[in-house]
């Protein structure tokens, strides 16, 4: 491959003037690269808030265009994580214009940190485990405790019970017992993880704000038609500020790609499992109020 590139470069230098040079695409900023390519944060590669540009580089080299696999790179329209207040459009299922809303910068525009996301998700998955697994030891397994044969004289190995782990129908050695799998995670880390998840969806253009989640009917086909009209959506999480509407629960319970949550149940793992997050105006106000509430120690 190297010889092919050298030969093509030499031929191109002879046939074209030196003024025609291609700029090497500028690499993605190292601080943003993990989040633009992350499996959890951007699984479907849709970035509405990013533009495709080709930036010049200091070290220009002569490369045949047919050997360039990707002549352009993704660069953000703005720098992420500046705690800047953002303005977003408010709509509904019918895609009607319901005005605008300001998203608090200290909640929806914080620096993206995968280490915090990892800690919070690990804490969530460990804490939700039931821990009811159990095995029987030689004191609890059913069976006699009589000595099977004499200690000496038989030529066999000495045993005091047939309920040891080496016998069929015996106990389990070092088996699991009921316990809690929960690990510790500080409240400020959990709160920061939720802010990072919300900021990641906002940076990707995957946070949609609705005026409300009211549906005219409880039929599933109504929510299917509304979701199909949304652009580049594969799995949606609907978050309401108050109690969930009965029509909404009935319309979405048979769809594996549409889930609903009240604002009190919004968590990092659920946000990462869905590529699109739809929140009502009331839900946004409640989550901002919750993030601004001092932590009780």
Q: Work out the number of β strands.
A: 8
Assign an overall shape: extended
Number of helices: 9
Unreliable stretches:
18-61, 70-75
Question: What would you call the structural class?
Answer: alpha/beta
- Helix proportion of residues, in percent? 25-40%
* Biggest sheet details: 6 strands, mixed
SSE blueprint:
Blueprint: H1 2-15, H2 33-36, E1 50-53, E2 73-76, E3 86-91, E4 100-103, H3 105-108, H4 114-127, H5 187-203, E5 207-210, H6 220-229, E6 236-240, H7 246-252, E7 258-262, H8 268-273, E8 276-280, H9 281-292
Parallel strand pairs: 3-5, 5-8, 6-7, 6-8
Antiparallel strand pairs: 1-2, 3-4
Helix pairs in contact: 4-5, 6-7
What can be said about this structure in brief?
With 297 residues, the chain is an alpha/beta fold.
